[in-house]
Amino acid sequence: MKKILLLCLSMMLSLSAMAQETSAGEKRAQIEKAKNERVAKEKKAKAKKEAEVAKEKKEAAAKKEAAKAKATKEKTDARAKVADKKAKETKETADKIKADKAKSDKAKAAAKAKAAKAKESSASATGAAKAAAGKAKAAGNKAEAAANKTEAKSKVKKKTPAEIKEDVKETAASKAAEKQVKDKATGMYNGKKVYTGPRGGRYYINKNGNKTYISDDK
What we know:
Region (Disordered): 21-201
Largest sheet: 4 strands, antiparallel
Shape: rod-shaped
Helix content: over 70%
Radius of gyration: 69 Å
Signal peptide: 1-19
Order of helices and strands: HHHEEEE
Protein name: Colicin import membrane protein
Number of helices: 3
Number of strands: 4
Keywords: Signal
Strand order of the largest sheet: 1-2-3-4
């Protein structure tokens, strides 16, 4: 009987220990589960936050690229407008220059034709005028030669042989003056060189270094 009681007591203690162990295991399992759930929740929240940040960055980058593309398009359009305007102005200028040149060429052709006609019509008049001018020049030269001859004669002063001899003496003044004479020597007069001036007058350099004119018959 006593053995049976001990056996029963032993079984009760074993069952109690098993129950306590089962309870502890369940508690540990619950704690582990709660921990795993918390970790999973934190990971999910972190992933969500990272996704939101990535989305915001992507949207910001997209907006920046869109703004940049818009600015580039506006700049390109502005340049295109300026280029079109410049090309239009250049074409207008070229057309104007072309029109002005055509007008100028036409005016030049008309003026050339008019000048040719005037030249042709005045050819005979020019010939007559040249002939008259030649005759007038010849007559003028003849009259000038006569006047020069008369002038030279009027400058001649008759001197006595003694005065002439005294006047033709070689002196330092006469030698110096002769070196300055640019007219051509055309003869001799009482041992002195005779020079002919541009108007036909004949003279020599006297002792004082001055010109003394002589008549053509000497």
